[in-house]
Design a protein that fits this description.
The protein has 11 helices and 10 strands. By secondary structure, it is of the alpha+beta class. The chain has 3 domains: 17-137, Orthogonal Bundle (Butyryl-Coa Dehydrogenase, subunit A, domain 1); 142-253, Butyryl-CoA Dehydrogenase, subunit A, domain 2; 257-401, Up-down Bundle (Butyryl-CoA Dehydrogenase, subunit A, domain 3), CATH 1.20.140.10. A 4-stranded mixed beta sheet has the order 1-4-5-8. Strands 2-3-7-6 form a 4-stranded antiparallel beta sheet, with no helix packed on it. A two-stranded antiparallel ribbon has the order 9-10. The termini are far apart. Bound molecules: flavin-adenine dinucleotide. Flavin-adenine dinucleotide is lined by residues 145, 147-148, 153-154, 178-180, 227, 231, 233, 382, 385-389, 391, 395, 408.
């Protein structure tokens, strides 16, 4: 009779391969290694069993979100003057990477990190003073990003939700789709049309607002969309939502630019999460291949089992280098659109490939929820499609790096 294979031992910080010191500027610093260890220690209760149980019940990671907020990891990018950790993006990326490598899903963390970036870069001093300390302390959750619409899809400039100025307020009406975690959020960053686009600038006419959801729920009908992983995403109908004019972020009509401005950070964080997922798959696949014995020898003695795992390791680590390059450029204030996009595509594909290799290694056990492989695959697959699909990433590289004509 076959005995079920034991679960691979939990990955530990010691197994995280250090970056080669020969890559100037890309090697992990001692402070970053300390940050990794801190994340591992503080989030120790949030390994595979925690996420598996949530996945089973389709429940929100409440305890994880609280712990993340309590130890200010959620406020990693908020400057110290507002109560945050004031870390660069390279460090924030390590935090979300660790969460995923520990078996988790850093979605709630990355959302707050990048949504908050729009407020940080384009908000008025009064808005920052009002909101950032509350977000940094965990008192207020900024988890919802209201951009995508049913008709517009990837073409954000075509969104139709209208915000009309009436005295001291904007009144908003429209439909949104795929708005994640709004039921667990107190603040939402909303993109809506305030005027028609200009013939010479199709991005003009969209504006960005901070919506205090505690006062807005009556005006927003929320319909959860069941998806194949544990994600709290929704369709919204917004009817006569009143937003105080003081909650307009930046200049009216320029909101699309502010949203784009956050995209590089978002892509870098997503890439880091995929690297974390990819390492989880490689580590678990290799551990399982060492201990599972079939035909009188460990699975991992067969090259047919070794090679996909070895290839996956190479792909994940190569994607990680691109992610590091992108974050280093971002933190230096240098253009990084190409690198951020490349990192996102490479990492999301590498993690999916690593998932497949891990699934093949586990054989039938890969399909059993108790081994977490199928859950991690469902989670990591999202990042080839959202927040931006990889076809649009390739279009970006074709147009902006290779100089090919714009295709859409
Ligand atoms: C679980 C989940 C959570 C999400 N959370 C949020 C959120 O919190 N807030 C938010 O605003 N949005 C959110 N989104 C939306 C997400 O950003 C969009 O799904 C994504 O941008 C793609 O848009 P779409 O689904 O309408 O695809 P479409 O635009 O309909 O495109 C479908 C497919 O067609 C292809 N395609 C489209 N255009 C082109 C082109 N020009 N060239 C080549 N191929 C193309 C791509 O492969 C694409 O995947 C979420 C989505 C999901 C699935």
């Amino acid at each position: 009779m076959k005995t079920p294979a034991a679960r691979p031992k939990k990955s530990s910080a010691a197994e995280v391969a250090p970056m080669p010191a020969a890559v100037p500027g890309l090697a992990e610093t001692p402070a970053q290694t300390a940050l990794r260890l801190r994340v591992r220690k503080e989030l120790e209760p949030f390994g595979d069993p925690y996420w598996r149980a949530l996945d089973d019940k389709r429940a929100y990671p409440e305890a994880y979100a609280k712990a993340f907020a309590k130890n200010r990891l959620l406020a990693a990018l908020i400057p110290e003057e507002y109560g945050g950790l004031g870390l660069p993006l390279s460090d924030a990326a390590l935090i979300v990477e660790e969460v995923n490598q520990m078996g988790g899903n850093a979605g709630t963390a990355h959302a707050q990190m990048y949504i908050m970036g729009t407020l940080l870069r384009h908000g008025s001093p009064e808005q920052k003073q009002k909101w950032l300390p509350q977000i940094a302390s965990g008192k207020l959750r900024l988890q919802a990003f209201g951009v995508t619409e049913p008709k517009a899809g990837s073409d954000t400039t075509k969104i139709e939700t209208q915000a009309v100025r009436k005295g001291g307020h904007y009144v908003v009406n429209g439909e949104k789709r795929w708005i994640s975690r709004i039921q667990y959020s107190e603040l939402m960053l909303l993109l809506a049309r305030t005027s028609p686009p200009r013939p010479d600038d199709r991005t003009f006419g969209l504006s960005t607002f901070l919506v205090d959801l505690r006062k807005a729920k009556d005006a927003i009908d929320i319909r959860p969309i069941k998806v194949w992983m544990n994600n709290f995403t929704n369709a919204l109908t917004i009817r006569d939502l009143k937003i105080p004019a003081e909650n307009l972020v930046g200049e009216e009509g320029r909101g699309f630019r502010y949203i784009i401005d956050g995209w590089n950070a978002e892509r870098i964080l997503i890439a880091a999460e995929c690297v974390g997922d990819g390492r989880w798959f490689v580590e678990h696949g290799a551990a399982y291949a060492k201990q599972r014995v079939v035909f009188g020898r460990p699975l991992g003695q067969n090259q047919g089992v070794q090679f996909p795992l070895a290839r996956s390791h190479m792909m994940v680590e190569a994607a990680d280098l691109m992610r590091r390059q992108a974050s280093a450029l971002f933190d230096a204030g240098t253009k990084c659109g190409a690198e951020a996009n490349m990192a996102k595509l490479l990492a999301s594909e590498a993690s999916w490939q690593a998932g497949n290799a891990c699934m093949d290694t586990y054989g039938g056990n890969g399909f059993a929820a108790e081994h977490d492989v199928e859950r991690k695959m469902r989670e990591t697959r999202l990042y080839q499609t959202a927040p931006i699909n990889n076809n649009l990433v390739m279009s970006y590289i074709a147009q902006h790096v290779l100089g090919l004509p714009r295709s859409f």
